[in-house]
Design brief:
Low-confidence stretches: 1-37
Helix content: 25-40%
Structural class: alpha+beta
Number of strands: 7
Number of helices: 6
Radius of gyration: 17 Å
Shape: globular
Strand content: 15-25%
Oligomer: single chain
Length: 176
């Protein structure tokens, strides 16, 4: 198998022919091959899926694994969310929202996942035992791509470039 040159990353991504041989379906391939850590593979395989398969996959897998959503991965996720239209279990906001994000480092402040709960944002900082920062931002309705509450996090997926007034509101020290 050849490593794909189209998708830079540290996972082993394979080219189209490797998983489309015979009757293989890319949607089924990602389900079967990578059931626990699927979102990275989805971002690569998604271009071989139909629009409806991508939409279904985003709904199903967004909350299962969104680690390392930076650079090209983040750009692709935003592209697929925009293509699908608003997704999720939370109602689509009609007015701007104040959202919060917990981050271990300042460079992660402009991620895709934000919450309406400052307590959830704090919990994300505290869970890594590294200390960190809680940010707030104003999200206009057009910046909000999806909303999920399966884990009771009141999570909104946003296009971070469209957020306004992003500011640090709290620094949480490293636990002693």
């Amino acid at each position: 198998m050849k490593k794909s040159q189209d998708y830079p990353g540290d996972w082993e991504y394979w080219d189209r022919d490797d998983f489309l041989e015979g009757d293989d379906d890319p949607y089924e391939w990602t389900c079967a091959r990578d059931s626990g850590q699927t979102f990275d593979r989805f971002l690569f395989v998604a271009r071989f899926m139909t629009k409806e398969q991508r939409r279904e996959w985003l709904i199903e897998r967004w909350t299962s694994n969104k680690a390392r959503m930076w650079g090209n991965r983040q750009r692709l996720a935003i592209e697929y969310f925009k293509e699908a239209g608003y997704l999720g279990t939370l109602p689509q906001p009609e007015a701007e929202l104040t959202l919060y994000r917990g981050s271990s480092k300042p460079r992660y402040r402009l991620g895709l996942s934000w919450t309406t709960s400052i307590d959830v944002a704090r919990r994300f900082v505290e869970m890594w035992f590294t200390g960190g920062i809680v940010y707030s931002a104003i999200a206009p309705p057009e910046a909000i791509l999806g909303g999920f509450d399966e884990r009771e996090e009141a999570e909104y997926v946003v296009d971070p470039k469209m957020l306004r007034a992003v500011k640090r509101i709290e620094v949480i020290p490293v636990p002693v």
